Amino acid sequence: GENVEQHPSTLSVQEGDSAVIKCTYSDSASNYFPWYKQELGKRPQLIIDIRSNVGEKKDQRIAVTLNKTAKHFSLHITETQPEDSAVYFCAAAGGATNKLIFGTGTLLAVQP
Amino acid sequence: KAGVTQTPRYLIKTRGQQVTLSCSPISGHRSVSWYQQTPGQGLQFLFEYFSETQRNKGNFPGRFSGRQFSNSRSEMNVSTLELGDSALYLCASLPGSGANVLTFGAGSRLTVL
């Protein structure tokens, strides 16, 4: 069935360092890959997304890369700041459906 | 634009009871999806509605049901509540079919005792 694996489950970095979170999806029909940030007690918020016709997308300190052949996609955060601390979820959707299959989340802690 | 509004925000029920949760999407959005978030299972898709029709359904028992009204507002119902139904229920709003970009509401936190 459809599945998205996400690693690592926890990640601790020093302020200013980079953070990388990786996801793998199983459904080859997937064509939309969003990343959500969820702070404690708050709703998930979209931070960046990528579609299958693009290999990389960047928005300031955040970038996402997609390798369709390997069914991998990754989130890269550069120059991390304490306010980046949160749980990050990757997800995949495909075809005509808006059904998102989420990864299990990565708790990112940025140490000042 | 007002965001996605979910009510109630918090509720406590006992086993065997039923619960109805409400979601008002962003004005102009016609598609609503529901997700269950638990520490153990993460974010799991419940169902998606578009123009009052259920387009997709996740792997949840028949106790979980939903509907969408002509004004795009949606409700989900859980009958015969079990302890394991305790979760944050998130509603997400989309502009229309195939748009993919979900905007989540703040959620309804259900505790079943």
Task: Describe this structure as you would to a colleague.
The complex is a heterodimer of chains A (112) and B (113). Chain A contains no helices and eleven strands. With 112 residues, chain A is mainly beta. In chain A, a hairpin with a 4-residue loop joins β7 (62-67) and β8. Chain A is globular. With 113 residues, chain B is an all-beta fold. Helix content of chain B is 0%, strand content 53%. Chain B has strands spanning 5-7, 10-13, 19-24, 31-38, 42-50, 53-57, 64-68, 74-78, 87-94, 103-104, 108-112. The radius of gyration of chain B is 13 Å and the shape is globular. The interface between A and B is medium-sized, with 22 and 24 residues.
Observed structural traits:
heterodimer, A: 112 residues, mainly beta, six-stranded mixed sheet, five-stranded antiparallel sheet, B: 113 residues, seven-stranded mixed sheet, four-stranded antiparallel sheet, 11 strands
Dominant shape of chain A: globular
Quaternary status of these chains? heterodimer
Please report the number of helical segments of chain A.
0
How many DSSP-defined strands of chain B? 11
Q: Report the C-alpha radius of gyration of chain B, rounded.
A: 13 Å
What ranges of chain B have pLDDT less than 50 throughout 5 or more consecutive residues? Answer: none
Mind sketching the topology for me?
The complex is a heterodimer of chains A (112) and B (113).
Chain A: E1 4-7, E2 10-14, E3 19-25, E4 30-38, E5 45-51, E6 56-59, E7 62-67, E8 72-77, E9 86-94, E10 101-102, E11 106-111
Chain B: E1 5-7, E2 10-13, E3 19-24, E4 31-38, E5 42-50, E6 53-57, E7 64-68, E8 74-78, E9 87-94, E10 103-104, E11 108-112
Parallel strand pairs in B: 2-11
Antiparallel strand pairs in B: 1-3, 3-8, 4-5, 4-9, 5-6, 7-8, 9-10, 9-11
Summary of the model, kept short:
The complex is a heterodimer of chains A (112) and B (113). Chain A is mainly β and 112 residues long. Chain A has strands spanning 4-7, 10-14, 19-25, 30-38, 45-51, 56-59, 62-67, 72-77, 86-94, 101-102, 106-111.
